[in-house]
Amino acid sequence: MTQRTRRLDELLREEISDIITRQVDDPRIGFLTITDVEVAPDLRHANVWVSVIGSDDEKKQTLRALAHAMPFVRQRLGRLRLKRIPDLHVKEDETAARGTRLMKILEELEQGGSGELEPSVETLPSPQRKSPEPEKAE
After folding, report:
1. Where are the domains of the chain?
2. In angstroms, what is the C-alpha Rg of the chain?
3. With respect to CATH, is domain 3-110 assigned 3.40.50.170?
4. How much is the mean pLDDT over the chain?
5. Exposed e or buried b for every residue in 97-122, given b needs 16+ CB within 10 A?
6. What is the pTM of this model?
7. What pLDDT digit, counting tens, does each position of 98-130 carry?
8. Measuring CA to CA, which residue among 82, 111, 71, 117 is closest to residue 5?
9. CA separation for the pair 56, 89 (Å, rounded)
10. How far is residue 110's CA from residue 132's CA, in Å, rounded to a whole number?
């Protein structure tokens, strides 16, 4: 990976996060973080790695909605005035979940357990979007 593609990865990560936060208004999109963007060497494609908090169904729904929103996001990236705006492909980043599972296994091993865990269930509550407050008449 060259210095140029690393800079482009970071620029795209910041811009995509901003566009999704400020301009994409889809109620199917839950609480997410753009963790990384990896641009191909030919700059034609980019993987957008996303970490999503919520149940399995909410994660799937968010990923589907994001994939549907990517053409809009790509269009908005045109303001960057790059020679080529890559096609964006959404991928789920499970690094945090794997790290949490590994920490639980290590903790159990330290306590003399076998290190085998049952399949985990989401421990964090699913964040809810705030509904806009009605305007107060003066």
Report:
1. 3-110
2. 19
3. no
4. 85
5. eeeeeeeeeeeeeeeeeeeeeeeeee
6. 0.74
7. 888 888 888 888 888 776 766 655 555 555 555
8. 82
9. 20
10. 48
